[in-house]
Specification:
Length: 320
């Protein structure tokens, strides 16, 4: 059975985009939040990124999930798997297999901002896992955690290293809100990318085929389409730098010439100087000690810490 709860109406999404674009493009330096990359084309470009030779996180995390899904099932005996930012739910199948084969799983609750991605993923999972109830939630994982259905004990999976898109203060309230919605004894499964040599990190975000550059510029296309803006997308270049102090990758779009951009739907006229950079994403990288400190602060107890064979990526399990 498939059921979908919609907590994000198209109206809510349109308003959020307007507010983010107004705030970010009026600020100095300019910024835009990464969630607006993911329209249909952006989601496709991201899937393409996950197959790039330079982009190791997806493969590394899949390796860990494949090796550890059985253990995760045995430790947690979860009845419900909640996946935050589920996207295509492709890696989730490894977890579903482990939990189902262990015999405790009754429902899968994917939560995503994209209703189309959620419906597609829910239908596909429903077809392949007939004994599992799929109860999708269209929502924002920073705002709709209180709406999570499902039989306890639940395991909330937040995979792919998406936690790295949040700045430390946002991570703190995010972990706290997950802890607040879980009952004592329930679980959090976290995928986090690890600090490594800067050349490997930068290559993962500045691939030679230019797919990440297209993904980055896609946010301008989204604003052109949704808000009637006239960004000359080709007048921006993709920049990915390693910020060694903050231990995060920062993606920027750099204006190659001075320009004005009109955004009629929000009555905004934005000026770019030649060389001016617009920040579009941070992707923080972690040390085990840092992850442990943050989760401990939110009130979680560590249950397991795993990495891939090359120790590039971590998957860790926490109990509320
Ligand atoms: C989906 C957020 C995990 O930060 O690595 C990939 C997004 N950005 N290449 C990441 C992304 C540029 C990705 N996450």
């Amino acid at each position: 059975m498939t059921l979908i709860d919609v907590h994000l109406t198209p109206d809510y999404v349109a308003r959020a985009l307007r507010e983010d674009v107004r705030a970010g493009l009026s600020a100095t330096p300019k910024w835009l939040p990464p969630k607006w990359f993911y329209d249909a084309r952006g989601s496709e470009l991201f899937e393409e990124i996950t197959r790039l030779p330079e982009y190791y996180p997806t493969r590394a995390e899949r390796e860990i999930l494949r090796a550890r899904a059985g253990e995760i099932a045995e430790i947690t005996k979860a009845h419900t798997l909640v996946e935050l930012g589920s996207g295509s739910s492709e890696k989730t199948r490894l977890l579903l297999d482990g939990l189902r084969d262990h015999g405790t799983l009754t429902s899968f609750v994917p939560l995503d901002v994209s209703e189309s991605a959620l419906r597609e993923a829910s239908d596909a999972i429903n077809a392949d896992y007939p004994t599992i109830d799929v109860h999708g939630v269209v929502g924002d994982f920073t705002a709709h955690l209180d709406k999570l259905p499902g039989d306890p004990p639940r395991i909330v999976a937040f995979l792919g290293g998406t936690i790295g898109n949040l700045i430390p203060a946002e991570r703190e309230s995010f972990f706290q809100s997950i802890r607040d919605v879980l009952e004592p004894g329930e679980w959090l499964l976290l995928g986090a990318d690890l600090v490594k040599d800067p050349a490997t990190l930068v290559a993962a975000y500045d691939d030679s085929a230019g797919v990440t550059a297209e993904f980055n510029k896609n946010v301008l296309r989204v604003i052109n389409r949704q808000l009637g803006a006239d960004f000359d997308v080709d007048a921006f270049e993709h920049v990915a730098i390693w910020d060694a102090d903050n231990e995060w990758i920062e993606m920027h779009l750099r204006a190659t010439r001075a320009m004005h951009v009109l955004i009629p739907e929000i009555h905004l006229d934005v000026t770019f100087a030649a060389g001016e950079e617009l920040s579009t994403e941070i992707s923080a990288k972690f040390h085990r000690s840092g992850v442990e400190a943050e989760l401990d602060k939110a009130g979680f107890t560590p249950a397991a810490w795993w990495t891939d064979g090359e120790a590039r990526f971590s998957l860790s399990l926490w109990q509320a």
